[in-house]
Design a protein that fits this description.
The protein has 269 residues and is of the alpha+beta class. The chain contains 8 helices and 13 strands. Helix 4 packs across helix 6 and helix 5 packs antiparallel against helix 8. The longest helix has 32 residues.
Length: 269
Amino acid sequence: MYVLELEYPGTWLDMADEDADIIQTYLCVLEASFYEANAALNRFEDMRNERPVALSEEEFLEQFRAKRRARMEIERQLDLESEADGGVQFLEGPGGTLVSANSLKAQKIIKQQEWAAGDGLEVFRRQHISISAKSYLFALDNFYKVFEELARRFPTPFGQPFQDLKKAFPDLIAVRNSLHHVEDRAIGQSRGKDIKLAPLNEHWFKSVDGAATALIGLALTDDEVGCTKADGEYGKVKINIATLQFVQSIFQQAINNLQWTGFPTHSPN
């Protein structure tokens, strides 16, 4: 587990009360967002490291055959019960093919048995990874916005650190906006206008002969979250300890740029 520390040279800011109150309030929000990102990063890495053990081809085939045998046996039992109640019902599938209604029931029973045993829940592990990634991204977005406001109001202590932050995260705001406004991105739009997609060359997303590819709603690749931005380009943000340590250094630099009085303090508490 990562615990990123912050040190305050004093307890109170040594400046005009009005300015001190504003900055102190914003510093509290910054620290809360920073440790929210810290917690999200820990959860993100924990869930990624919980990947199930990869099966060999032989083990995979045996598992598949065992599930099929179990499903067929359950379906056979259901058919016997159905025959006693008046006959097996059939559902019409694609192309007019008929499928036993008990086939679907058997599949559901097999899944429910796996879930009860704590198996077959890979979908939830993937969702936990996605939730953690978004939490990290949104926490950094909150941190960025508050830092931007501080830089606007108090450029001397916060201006240069914010420029360094902005340079390090060129896609942060656009990626966060796309992930937040799924109602627009799902239909390829931004603010009611169609997005003109740019060619892609990211991970397994490759354009052919420079042609635009499909809109990417959310992509999690190793330690990176990415998506199509409002301008049609692909944006990405790293989710790793190096990224958060950089944010830590920016935050600490801004803290050190301020004038303090009283005893030094230390976070987290």
